[in-house]
Write a structure and sequence with these properties.
The protein has 254 residues and is mainly β. It has helices spanning 7-33, 67-72; strands at residues 35-36, 44-52, 92-96, 103-104, 112-117, 120-122, 125-129, 134-138, 144-148, 158-160, 167-169, 175-181, 189-195, 200-202, 208-212, 217-225, 229-237, 242-250. The protein has 2 domains: 1-33, no CATH class; 39-253, Cupredoxins -  blue copper proteins (Immunoglobulin-like).
Length: 254
């Protein structure tokens, strides 16, 4: 004979299934309520990162523990303050706003590339979107190791001998900023920011950056540098606007 559940347990099971159905339906409704993002191409947030004062002088790195590093990059040194005179490169610029949570953003299929080259990480700072592939290359003739240390995403640690295929990873949660190290070469460092939107950029040697297609709204614009910290500007961004911002960093602030 088939055994039936006691009435109290049956009520509990039915209630749990009903609650699960409501939660799932709520998640579906929440996803449906998000607007598909479509950039008009006219809204542009651009600007310049300036730098005043005496730059920290690069310090020579002793790569003698790995003779191959010493051979392929005999002038290996720290890279704390790159950029043309009066400008600052490798500054990550991004926006923050709760209004961005109302949009569905397409997940990029093109990978972001992080490279071991000359016994350094290139680029030193980079941004990526949730779910976007991160490809790690070893372009040197020595063994490297890639070891990110996130707080909100799973940590991993992989060795990459020369001539082996690239490593490919994705990140499931937004997180700023994840330090990367190489356990083979302790001087190798990089920083990765994971975003749930595409509105971020890195300043070039001239200190310039450009973010295209930002929807109208109120934003905090953040400029982050590994050595000189963080600057923020609050803006109200209008439809069709082209806004130019300047972030000023100074050597005395380090």
């Amino acid at each position: 004979m088939r055994r039936l559940l006691p009435i109290p347990q049956l009520v509990l099971v039915i209630s749990s299934l009903f609650l699960l159905t409501v939660i799932t339906a709520g998640q579906d409704i929440k996803l449906e309520l998000k607007k598909p993002y479509a950039a008009s191409g006219y809204e542009t947030l651009s600007g310049t990162i300036t730098f005043s004062g005496e730059r920290p002088k690069p310090r020579s790195i002793d790569s003698s523990p790995d003779p191959i590093c010493r051979e392929i990059n005999p002038n290996l040194s720290t890279e704390y303050a790159e950029g043309d005179k009066g400008r600052l490169a490798n500054v990550l610029v991004y926006v923050e706003s709760e209004s961005l949570q109302t949009y569905n953003f397409e997940r990029p299929s093109a990978p972001v590339v992080l490279e071991h080259r000359g016994c350094s990480y290139l680029p030193r700072v980079l941004g990526i979107q949730v779910g976007q592939p991160l490809v790690i290359l070893n372009s040197d003739t020595t063994m490297h190791n890639t070891h990110p240390q996130p707080q909100k995403n799973p940590e991993w640690n992989q060795t990459q001998p020369p001539g082996t295929p690239p490593l490919v990873h994705t990140f499931k949660r937004p997180e700023k900023l994840i330090p990367f190290k190489c356990n083979q070469h302790p001087w190798e460092k990089a920083f990765l920011a994971v975003f749930d939107h595409p509105f971020f950029a890195l300043s070039d040697q001239r200190g310039t950056f450009r973010i295209q297609g930002l929807p109208p709204g109120q934003y905090k614009v953040v400029a982050w540098h590994e050595r000189f910290g963080e600057k923020t500007i609050d803006i109200t961004f209008l439809p069709g606007e082209a806004r130019d911002l300047t972030f000023d960093f100074a050597a005395a602030e380090r």
